[in-house]
Amino acid sequence: MADRRIYLWNLDGSEIEHEQEQREQEQSDVAMTNDGKWIVSMSKEREISFFDTETKTVDRYKVIRDKDTITSFTLSKDNKYMLNNLSNEEITIWCIDVDEPYKYFEYSGHQRRRFIIRSCFGGYQEYFVASGSEDAQVYIWHRQDSEEPLRALKGHSRTVKCVSWNPTDIHMLASASDDGTIRIWGLDKKLEGDVLITDDEDALVVMAYTGDMVFEYDD
């Protein structure tokens, strides 16, 4: 908000009463952990802070300062990790389920020069990371051991700005593009594809994707 405070509302539109101090800088993105304990906010520079909803204070030790300007961030569903999209065309993952967050991994290979691109966790136990890109593709990395993309999914004709992984189907994700379409990606049963083994030796994730299901929308 312009007054450098964060406001909360109920689903019926009524504002939730809470106390928050005024921040030093304007906040450009905000999210809340699934347990409701932390309100996570991003300034227009390189800093992400954590507001404790129980103590109603900003934790001065629980701060993330990345190496370049953070354009967007995403939280994992288990509240343990955070994805940061940076202006230098990198994605960093941070461990946040600790008193002092630390950088866990870095990813590269997609394109981001002009627009805000949003990434997400997904797949079996959120072992994978997906991101849009300005080259009209969707990129997928393994969360723990692949700095370069495992797959680049082609189908869009303009910048892919947002991706979202299905929380109940580990093989399905959606991507939204400036070409005016939302494309649903899933397993291509006609292709055998490669089999990737996750940390769980019994869990095999087939990564042969097709994006034949397309929805058009108006700008």
Residue share in β-strands:
over 45%
| Extended strand count | 18
Do you know the CATH topology of the domain at 109-216? Answer: Methylamine Dehydrogenase, Chain H
Shape: globular
What number is the mean pLDDT? 78
Q: Could you give me the name of the CATH homologous superfamily of the domain at 109-216? A: YVTN repeat-like/Quinoprotein amine dehydrogenase
SS summary, helix count = 0
The major beta sheet can be summarized as: 4 strands, antiparallel
What is the assembly state of the chains in this entry?
A: single chain
* Uncertain residue ranges: 192-209
The residue fraction in helices comes out at under 10%
- Termini separation comes to 25 Å
Enumerate the strands of the largest sheet in spatial order, edge to edge or round the barrel.
1-2-3-4
What are the secondary-structure elements, in order, as H or E? Answer: EEEEEEEEEEEEEEEEEE
Q: Given this structure, which CATH class of the domain at 109-216 is correct?
A: Mainly Beta
**Structural class determined from secondary elements:** mainly beta
